[in-house]
Predict the 3D structure of the following.
Amino acid sequence: MKILIIEDEPKTGSYLKIGLTQAGFTVHVAADGWDGLDQALNETYDLVVLDVMLPGLDGWEVIRRLRQENRILPVLFLTARDDVDDRVKGLELGADDYLVKPFAFPELLARIRTRLRRNQASPSLDKLSVSDLVIDLPSRRVTRAGIRIDLTNKEFSLLELLVRRAGEVLPRTLIASQVWDMNFSSDTNAVDVAVRRLRSKVDDNFVPKLIQTVRGVGYMLEVLSK
């Protein structure tokens, strides 16, 4: 999952990027409001962490313009502005959460994960597809090139995660937390075994290949010709 941090204080931005990257996210940092708005409008992110007091364009204006453009991605304000009026203003402008500095990183991480889980649980399209692979979510039916593929519950959840995040490298830690709801241990190869079994069903007898291994990191779903 990709997170955009719009934060002008270099130490805070670096601290957030390191912590969230270690937690399994892909993180980009913008140091002023204009750059942050441009990235949020022209790139695909799952969540934005936004400061209020920014050079160029303040956080209030950034979220106002995002909502004017009908961008519905979650926004979490992370700011030293701790007045009740400020919190109310942020939420009324369309923020999904508001956390005051100084903050505890575990709390920020928990809020981000909670927000992302809510988004994943919200109503979505009934079908997902990549190339000739089709996932029917209500019936939990998977087909490739029109051929029915039988998957276990965990294999289905793993495939759904890969398809929803197609084009993104998913670390083993993220896969373990999303599919098994557990912390990943380097002593277990549960993720690798599950991916290998899933690949044998959805890739071995088909072209193009979809599930790619990113050595030392994890896996991604991307269409390769051969």
User: Anything to note?
Assistant: The first helix runs from residue 10 to 22. The CA atoms of residues 41 and 66 lie 7 Å apart.
